[in-house]
Write the structure tokens for this entry.
Amino acid sequence: MTKKTLLAGILTLAMLAIPAQAGVMQDSAPAADLPAGTLIYYEDFEGLYGEGTDDSLDALGWTKSENLLAYTAQLSIDNGYLSIDNLEETVGTSNDSYAVIMDDAHLAKFAKGDYTYQYDVTYRDAGNSYRYVSLLVNYDGNNNYDTVDMRMRGDGYNQTRRGSDWIHYNDTTCPIRATDSTAILTQLFGETFDENAYALQNKTITVRVEVSQANGPTVYVNGIKVSEMAANTDKWGTLDSTAMAFKASNRIKADIDNIMIWAGTGVEPDMSVFAPEVEETAAEVVDSAADAVVTAPQTFDAGVIAAVGAIVSAAGYALSKKR
């Protein structure tokens, strides 16, 4: 084998070992006073594969929550996103399905401060125009939590659930609730709101929720402010739980991507958490590869193979610690 071929092989292995992005969650429970922008959770589903619900949840480190309803949504991970199918023609009886992303023990301190969460969603099909997927905060494992639900028909609610009661934090004139020319659907896509239309079908939206302990949840869709806490302010901050969960409503089919949670509000997440380690590790791999080329014989021997294995293993470990 020539030196050129050897170098190409080493660099290929290095690139496989160092993905451009990788799932990240802080190993220890994050504090409430982290610098604004500090990323505590990131999942772009790249490099993950889940053939079914249990396999996908295991890959993500999420857990089913079935205290309220039996979990029915079918999950899979492939091509860099999470797919959800909770349609009746797929699963039969379709229930709202919940999975805990981070539990109370992990978020008890962090959730006492201000923070932001964000995700991308693309709705594929639904049993009716009212269906949705969402992330839940202050989730108690049953039927108490705060949530923002963007629905297939193109509107949504910024609200809290208390048992069987759905209590709105938003007013009825903000863009997330409006049905006239100020509606978020109209602002983003130029479409007139129709409560029966599948207006968001095959459209990708980015939902960002800024969670302020003083001012409650403020919601943005594709960068446009659509809701702030304008009603039922006495309900905000009265839940004891702090867990964050994923919810697929009954009769929905959708794809989810780019889930992020970071400290503070009004700031962008600090994505440099990925860059320094990746760049440094990549540089080390390339330097080591070059050294290997200089000293390597024309054919592989055990020493070169061991060196390459050590380089690639080190690069993989540097990122796997973040998962």
